[in-house]
Design a protein that fits this description.
Elements (H helix, E strand, L loop, with lengths): L12 E3 L9 E2 L12 E6 L2 E2 L3 E2 L3 E7 L2 E8 L2 E6 L5 H7 L3 H36 L2 E5 L6 E5 L28
Antiparallel strand pairs: 1-2, 3-6, 4-5, 6-7, 7-8, 9-10
């Protein structure tokens, strides 16, 4: 638990872990790696300020006209594409370091939560398809890869009561796609 006593950015003296009476230390800066050809626009080390976020380091980079959010945290590194149209750079430029850090933190955590929800829904879908016997696979022609898909559910239609009659001359159209 962070016990810094005041907002502290990694690399600055003042960090205290789990003991408010301990001597202040410097939490090391641990930035995510940048790819070749990538330009760093913003580098925001972990910090605290009401929330302990010392383990998250954010960088905003530009590569081939697109902005990326690079994140390093306790589980490793992540890369998130931020823009398709470039307005985010203007928004980030209007913020101070703390405002930018906490906005990047919110973007990262929202994206992370959405990704986990999507993964959970997909896993549930595949589990149910397996249980239903609708999961299919086929070996590709090259012999090393498999194509996997889920067959659609077949919903039984209500049977026609035996006493119902269709008037003579009525044309019946069947859709094969349903």
């Amino acid at each position: 638990m962070c016990c810094c006593g005041k907002p502290t950015i990694n690399g600055e003296l003042g960090y205290r872990w789990n003991n408010p009476n301990a001597e202040p230390m410097i939490h090391p800066v641990n930035a995510p790696d940048v790819s070749e050809g990538e330009t760093i626009l913003y580098d925001e080390p972990g910090r605290c300020g009401g929330i302990d976020s010392h383990s998250f380091h954010y960088r905003v980079t530009k590569l081939h006209g697109s902005l990326f959010l690079l994140v390093r945290h306790g589980a490793g590194d992540e890369r998130i594409r931020l823009s398709l149209y470039g307005k985010q750079a203007e928004v980030l430029a209007g913020l101070d370091s703390n405002g930018r850090y906490w906005l990047l933190n919110a973007i990262f955590h929202a994206q992370s939560e959405a990704r986990h929800e999507g993964e959970d829904k997909q896993a549930t879908r595949y589990r149910q398809a397996f249980i239903d016997g609708r999961l299919r696979k086929r070996k590709e022609r090259n012999g090393t890869a498999y194509k996997v898909w889920i067959e659609p559910k077949i919903i039984p239609r209500e049977p026609v009561p035996p006493d119902s009659t269709i008037p003579a001359g009525t044309e019946i159209l069947l859709n094969s796609g349903q």
